[in-house]
Amino acid sequence: MIRFDNVTKTYMRGQHPAVENLDIEFTRGEFVFLVGASGSGKSTMMRMVLKETGPTRGTVYVAGKDLSRIPSWKVPALRRDIGMVFQDFRLLPSKTAYQNIEFALAVIGTPRKVVRRLVPEMLEMVGLEDKGKRLPHELSGGEQQRVAIARAYVNRPSILLADEPTGNLDPSTAEGILDLLGEINERGTTVVMATHDHSAVDRMRRRVVEMVGGQVVRDQEGGRYESETPVSVISGNLPDDSAHREEHPLDAAEYREPAERTERTEPEDDSAADVLEEELIDERDARLERDEAAFDEEDEDEEDRR
Ligand SMILES: Nc1ncnc2c1ncn2[C@@H]1O[C@H](COP(=O)(O)OP(=O)(O)OP(=O)(O)O)[C@@H](O)[C@H]1O
Ligand SMILES: [Mg+2]
């Protein structure tokens, strides 16, 4: 779904790369946490997936396509299939919750009938069916983030990127937002979330990719926020901090070196996988068209009755 092939990004000549020799793949349907100190390259990875910035070296693939080969006129189509949520919500301040979601559909020319059906559906999904008429400043932070998620998801993207979506929220509101992202993931969207939120990562126990200075230092299925030192049972090389061990019982089998994953997920010839990705996208488009056609028919029936 998303693949970084030996990607290095240097914003300014002479500067340490924001991302260096990155080799990693996020597959369809995964929920991935990107963790790491401020400046470790998390947002840079997301920006490259959106083609907001390009790699200095290497290749970024989304849905099997090399982004550097996507012409600029096709970039909107790429972004339509990628929802994005930010820490500061980024809603349009003079538009209501309803209009903010509607806007995401209008800009891609969605028929009005479909908009009238989808927006209330989205408001309901995020639990704001009674707050569609509110302006962003009349909503709490958590509610604003729900609107932002509804707007990011309304086009049913295959990928949702969330850059510290709970950064401005209190713990219980953050949990609600996380559950919503979990639900979106369960509906089939690949979710990549950059976060400093320990409890979010520890609660979900999904794949955790940890960055240090632009490089992946940990890639772990079912991980926690804090890294657990790998243990070699054979060498008897157990860590000396037994208190830490009791708190986080180590499971050596659960831990994988980043290189190991890279080997497993990078077949030499992935053209078959690319074709599959394209088919899945075509399938999604066909489904949307069918939905719209069915809806138009419903409307015609209604007109006939009148
Ligand atoms: N537009 C830019 N121009 C120059 N340098 C940049 C730019 N954007 C980011 N950087 C640098 O790239 C590095 C990685 O930044 P990035 O924003 O990806 O980090 P991050 O992991 O998202 O950090 P945070 O957790 O604070 O959001 C940092 O050293 C940063 O200063
Ligand atoms: Mg960031």
From TrEMBL:
Residues 241-265, 283-293 have a biased composition (Basic and acidic residues). The keyword GTP-binding does not apply. Keywords: ATP-binding, Cell cycle, Cell division, Cell membrane, Membrane, Nucleotide-binding. It is found in: Cell membrane. It is a peripheral membrane protein. Its main location: membrane. It comes from the Bacteria. Homodimer. Forms a membrane-associated complex with FtsX. This is Cell division ATP-binding protein FtsE. It comes from Brachybacterium sacelli.
